[in-house]
Design goal:
About 30% of the residues lie in helices and about 45% in strands. Strands 2-1-6-5-4-3 form a six-stranded mixed sheet, covered by helices on one side. It starts with 6 loop residues before the first helix and ends with a strand. It is of the alpha+beta class.
């Protein structure tokens, strides 16, 4: 299934599947916030640390299945595979954009 995403999100998911931390981080604004596994990560330095840890720990790849946009908010459902119990599983990524960049991401 082909899903059209804004370029920032296309870049994020492509980089995630390559395990390219620099490219994963590039679409995020300087003061972005990520919420994942009950924790919040504020700013690019904290988000980079989160990306490095979760990439090392889980090695996740994402196959985007659907996306829905409402204004500056985009909800993406993806089939994730990696080194974790229950793989593969479907997760929801809730993005908020600022202009063309990612201002926040909540994963659940």
């Amino acid at each position: 299934m082909t899903v059209e995403l804004p370029s920032a999100l296309e870049s994020y998911f492509a980089a995630k599947n390559r395990k390219d931390i620099d490219a994963m981080l590039s679409p995020f604004v300087a003061d972005a916030v990520v919420r994942d596994e009950g924790h919040e990560h504020h700013g690019r330095e904290a988000i980079r640390a989160w990306m490095e840890e979760t990439t090392r720990k889980y090695g996740v790849s994402v196959e985007v299945r659907e996306a829905e946009r409402s204004g500056d908010r985009i909800v993406v459902k993806g089939l994730i595979s990696g080194d974790f119990p229950g793989s593969p599983a479907t997760l929801t990524y809730r993005f908020r954009l600022h202009d063309t960049m990612v201002a926040s991401l909540e994963i659940g």
